Structures are given as structure tokens and as C-alpha cells.
Amino acid sequence: MTATLNRTSLPDDARGDSGVDDPNVDSAAFNSAGFDDAGFGAELDAIRAEVLGSLGAADAAYIRRLILTQRRLDMAGRAALLAGIFPPAWIAGTAMLGVAKILENMEIGHNVMHGQFDWMRDPEIHSTSWEWDNVCPSTQWKHTHNHMHHQWTNVRGMDRDIGYGVLRVDEDQPWHPAHLAQSLYFLALAALFEYGVGFHDVESDLNAGERITLDKVAPKIRETGRKIRSQVLKDYVAFPALSIPFGAPSVLASMTGAATANLMRNVWSFSVIFCGHFPDGVTYFDQADIDHESRGQWYRRQIMGSANFNSGRIMNVMSGNLNHQIEHHLFPDLPANRYVEIAPRVREICARYDIPYNSRSFVRQFGSVVRKVVRLSFPGS
Are 170 and 284 a contacting pair, CB within 8 Å? Predict the structure, then answer.
């Protein structure tokens, strides 16, 4: 098996609800004869090399400008919440803080930790040093996400992101009575998504199919606990304490504003990620499908295991450009702000090689996820 992680993504700027020709493609189609994997891989490699060769000052300015904007929004939101006893100030402060948290997690933290800006050699904007505004420690996230998920995308028994060990999203996954309540799990995971992500690495270890003792995962549990403590102290103690001179109502407004902003971030990031991984049309693979996998076949699996949703410029930024999930899975270490310019080329290549390119509206993609979660909660489906 030859799947390597350092591949860059190219985004999709296509419009319309073209979707895929067959929304129920299975892994059997993955092994069809006649696929020119060498030619396919070479064309995508050429796009990646072209983007890497063009990286420069404009890309560095983009991420630095975005970080500055995000930090200003964060501080402006928290400052407005000092006067949060007045409803307009609370709404404005919460909205700014929520947007700041979304930007930090989606377009900054996620992408920086993928190594998309390591080429800048800036020690403050580097995958080895960035710690995001999330209860999940960056080290654990990079293990389960960068290494496990992106390398083994949608491979049963290897990619722990298939349903996150909680939801049945694959028809070949055995049904269990606990799945009857998965619609409730779905809602709970949306509201508390950062905590699901925070303990996902531990959950992956415990369900890896090998004997894992508590003492082996205890360091990760303690690490996540420390990160949770620092996030709670920041959002619900330190910044609300600045409101003490304005009275208890102001302190409460600061705390509820931060809680609402975290909820906004959790629900939005959950929705974007689920649209990119679990809607109709994504393919799941068996481990036999990736035996002796070539580079071109790895690329094809990334495309067939991912999905895009159509959007404009604002949504590109607010989703961390993960509305271009296909391109992100092809090239996870390329700056996400470049996805939009290369997506049409990726789509055109897929059409020539007869590979389904799953792209629909956000509403259709998320709607299909909801239907799947409900349908697969019952036996016989």
C-alpha cells in the first residue's frame, strides 16, 4: 500500500447542483478495469506542482491578514459583551465572537495544522506550533485527522472518522440496538462537536481492535483535560472576570455570549464536515481495495470518498474552504485559499476519467446526511 499524506488540494468553484451520476457508487466500481491510474495521477500531480511553484507573498499576506482579522473580531466581540446586559451589545458581541471562533477553527487552525503554510517558515504560523481555540489538543487532532483520516479516507477498519465511532453512516456497518438513538447522538454531537473531536483520538485507540489498557490512553485523557480546563478558564472565568466592575448581569452576559459563540462554532463546523464526508454518493472501501494502491488510485479514492457543496466567496472562508472537500482530500497540504482556482480543472479531469465528482448545494448535501442518519438507525437498512 502506498498512500502518502503530503498531497495538496485544489478547490471547486463549480456552480449548480450537478451532483453525481450515480449517488450509490460502491467500492466494486473502484476496482473496475481500464482505469489509467498513472495518467490520472500524473495530471493531478501536475496541478499540485503548479500551485506549489506559485506560492508566495500573496498567500502569506492572506493568512496573516486573516489571523489579524480573526483576533480583532475576537477582542471586539468580548469587549461588546462587557456591555452585554444591553441586548444589542450581547447580540453583536456574541456574533463577532462566534465568527472569530469559526474562522480560527476552520480557515486558520485546521489549515495551518495541515502544514499548508509551513513553507513560509514562520514559527508562529506553523503546523508544529499552532494551538487552536478548541478543546482538542493539536497533537491528537493531527494524529487522527492528518495521519489516520486523510491517509486512509473511508477505508473500513482504518479510518476512524467513519461515523466517528458513534454513528452508523455505512450500510455495511452492523446494526446495533444503540443505533436506534443515533438521531439524538447526531444532535448532541453537533452541539458538543469540539468535545467529540477532543476525545476522538482516545476513542480511536480504545476501538482499534487491539488490547489497549487505560494506562496507555491516560496521558491523552490528561492532555485533553488540561486543554478543556484552559478553554473553560478563558471563556468562562478570565474574560467574564473583566465584567465584574459592571456587575453580575454583565458577568453572566459575557459567559452566555461565550457559550453561544462556542455553540455556533460547533454546529457550523459539524455541518460543514458532515457535508463533506457522509452525504449520498460517498464511497466506503474495504482494506482489500487498497492493496498495492498506486498514487493515481489513492487520488481516486480521495475523490470518491469525499463531497463538495457549492457556495460563494464568503462561504469559502467561513467553511475553511472545506466546501471544496474533494480538493482538500487530494491535496491537504496546499493552502486552502487556492482551492477555488483549481477546482474546475479537477472536475474536468474527473469527467475525462469517468470518476464521479460529488458536488451539490449545501442544503441537498446536509439533507442527505440527515436522511441517512435517520434511515440507518433502524435494522434492515
Answer: yes
